[in-house]
Each structure stands twice: as structure tokens, then as C-alpha cells.
Amino acid sequence: MVTVSHFWQLILGTVIALLPLINPLAGAPTFLAITEGDTEARRFQQLRMACIYMVVILVSFLIGGTFIMGFFGISIPGLRIAGGLLVAGIGSGMLVANPRSTVEDERVREAARAKRDISFSPLAMPMLSGPGSIAVTLGFISLANHWIDYVAIILGILIVATITYATLRLSGKIVTVIGVNGMHALTKIMGFLLLCVGIQFVVNGVLGVATDPELIRAIRDAALSH
Q1: Which of 14, 54, 208, 222 could form a disulfide with 77 if both were Cys (CB 3.0 to 4.6 A apart)?
Q2: Per-residue H/E/C for 57-87
Q3: Torsion over CA: 26, 163, 18, 118 (sign)
């Protein structure tokens, strides 16, 4: 039986885990750059479609994640550890300045300018639903024991998409008010939160391996045989 508190914890956990990773505040300048020259209506239409694509991508991996894990023989603890390492790596990269990031951002912008429709790529993927957010979404499968749990996670994804849409829709005002230094500070704060989330994923994965009944039984049998 799923309790109301567990339901809301899953929603809140999904928002806390995904929002720093997607980080729409840090993506605001890039969004403005790649939609430069577009009308306001066109810019908002591209943003709306990108958020819809993001939800579809993450929900697809959430629902199809069990099949993917079974097909490749991936265990829940293994998924937690791998996802945690990936998320922690992204978080640490946000904390430490990366001199190549400016060049990479410029490449994304140039590629986007050459396309007529940027809603799916690069907006939805990889900006809003890249490997990190997909890995986190897959990691939430280990917390879902009932269909209501999946509903809670999907609601969390929808909340993140709504916040992302609202933030990027106001990106022009946000960039003006916060400024470059403020954006850098927010990025580092988000990076620290991501690092904490990633490490917690790894800790949960290691605990899952250490408390696995088969492993404990094998260690006990080995000890008794000697």
C-alpha cells in the first residue's frame, strides 16, 4: 500500500533531482542565443514543443526502463551506482569552471542557428533531457514498487517541465536581472546539489550490493566451508 507521504516524497524527490540537472536558469542565455532573430511567438512555440519532447523522452525511459534493464541484465544497485557516478560527474563539472564549455556552447548555438526547428535538438535533447536526466529518471525505477509510484514520478517530471517552461519563457528578464556573475553562482549551487544527489545514488547502490541476500549467503557459505 502506497502512503500519501511516500507519494509526495517521490514527487518532491523527482523535482529536486531533475531540476538542478536541467538547470533552466543556466540554460537561459543559450536559449536566447539559439533563438536569436526569431519572433516572440516562434520562440515560445519552440520552447513549448521542447518541454513536451522532454516529458515524452523522460517518461518513455521511466516506463521502458524495466525492459531496458532486463534486456541488458542491469541490476537496480548497478543502475544506481552508474547513474550516481554520472550525475556526480556532471555536478562536479558545474562546480569547477570548464574552459571548454564556452567553445562547446558556441558550437551548440551555431548548429541551432543552422536549423529551422530547434525544439527537439538541441533544446529537448541534450539541453533539457540529456544523459544525466535520463540516468536519474532510470534510477527512480528502483523506488517505484506500485503503479501509483510511477504516477508520482511522472507528476514530478511534469512539474519540472512547467518550471523549465516558465523560467525559459522569462529568460530575457532573468538574464538582465541576475547578470553573468549571478548565473555562475547559481550554476555552482546547482552543481553542488547534483553532486550530493549523485553521491547519495552511489551510496544507495553500494548498500544494495552489500545487503544483497545472495551475496550474504555466498559469503556465509564461504566462511563456513573454511
Answers
A1: 208
A2: HHHHHHHHHHHHHHHHCCCHHHHHHHHHHHH
A3: negative
CA-based radius of gyration for the chain: 20
Give the tens place of pLDDT for each residue, 162-176.
999 999 998 878 777
Q: What is the model's pTM?
A: 0.70
**Which residues have a Cβ under 8 Å from the Cβ of 82 and sit 6 or more positions away?**
135, 205
Grid cell of 34 as nine digits:
539559439
Which of these, 140, 147, 165, lies nearest to 17 by C-alpha position?
A: 140
Give the cell for residue 148: 501509483
Amino acid sitting at position 58:
L
Q: What are the grid coordinates assigned to 175, written together?
A: 538574464
Rounded to 10 degrees, the C-alpha dihedral 91/24/10/77 comes to -30
Render the burial of 153-174: b for 16+ CB within 10 Å, e for the rest. Answer: bbbbbbbbbebbbebbbebeeb
**DSSP element (H, E) containing 29:** helix 24-34
- What are the cell numbers at 177? 536581472
How is residue 38 written as a grid cell? 526569431
Q: What single-letter amino acid sits at 33?
A: A
Q: What is the pLDDT of residues 106-126, one digit of tens each?
A: 555 455 455 567 788 778 877
Residue numbers of the chain with a pLDDT score lower than 50? 99-100, 103, 109, 112
Output the nine-digit C-alpha cell for 99.
574552459
Domain boundaries, the chain: 4-225
What is the reported pLDDT for 100?
45
d(CA 224, CA 158): 52
